[in-house]
User: Fold this.
Amino acid sequence: MKQRLLALDAFRGLTVALMILVNNPGSWAHIYPPLRHAAWHGLTPTDLVFPFFLFIVGVAISLGFANRQTAGVSQSELVRKIVWRSVVIFSLGLFLNGFPFGLGFLKTFPEALDQLRIWGVLQRIAVCYLMVGVTVVFITSLRGRLLAMVSWLLFYELMMRHSLVAGWGDGSFALEDNFVRLLDLKTLGEAHLFQVRGVVFDPEGLLSSWPAAATTMLGFFTGEFLRRPLGLSVRLSGLATAGILLTGTGLNLALVEPLNKQLWTTSYMALTGGLAMLVLALCIWLIDSRGWQRGVGPAVVFGRNPLVVFVGSGLVARLLYLVKVPGKDGTVVSLKAMLYHDLFVPMAGPLNGSLLFALTFVGLWWAVLWWMDRQGVHIKV
Assistant:
């Protein structure tokens, strides 16, 4: 179990490190194509980051719940822990969305609340954790849990494919008139939503969280399989086979439903879930079978404090934009712009300088997390 957790930490760490890399280029105008999200339909390596993380959350739910049940934690205590953790993670997401909440930088506190984006990455993680956690606590059979996951996908497809409101939905997966967008507009309003290419639309919206929860449930099923008393070769072959089949299913579904991260389509859920299984199988093979543990240390460091680095990097990134300094031409620019243009562009040019900025950002956070790990500081909620 210890080695399997190390493989999971390594997978989580690689995912988190890639998330920080793609979220912090020196300039959004200069990014290599694989480090961009697909504009709408389609899939890039960057579009694998979020589903991989949710898949890992599901695996961790399986392992964590098993440990708590072995320790004699009651069902009611477990549910309270699930709800509390979900509330804390959701609240951290709201804090990141609103930071610095009018602390003399952009707007007053009331204005910040009036325009506060409700959804976000941490909020989706919280919702998926809550849905899967409560489901597996109250539904203990494999069949019941499978039915729950399938029902989430069917509900999503029903909402997306039926014209419940004139002019919306009816099978549309376009940016302007999909049902994900309509539901968020009706429940939250434009002021509390994100914008994609000038259109009010939230890529972490309410309806699309249902198939995202299915991604998390796939991770839970994977964790349950890995906990079975089977030989390493059996676990690896089973996980790899499931990953190949699910990846093939996603590619076939893409013929009738587009791959789309921002809508979290069923085809996208299946394809990325299958790929996550294959990557986890590779990590287990390298660490458990080949004994390659020394080389995964940097990834493990990121994997043991994911919440710290996500929240911390988000705060630092915002401060780099908010802090103003004098530019070379006498104008006032952000600290980030100054560092990028005056330090990284002269070293590597606009495109490679932007990548070097992101890599430096990742490296600095690795140093912080390495120190925390050496001190035994692992912050969880």
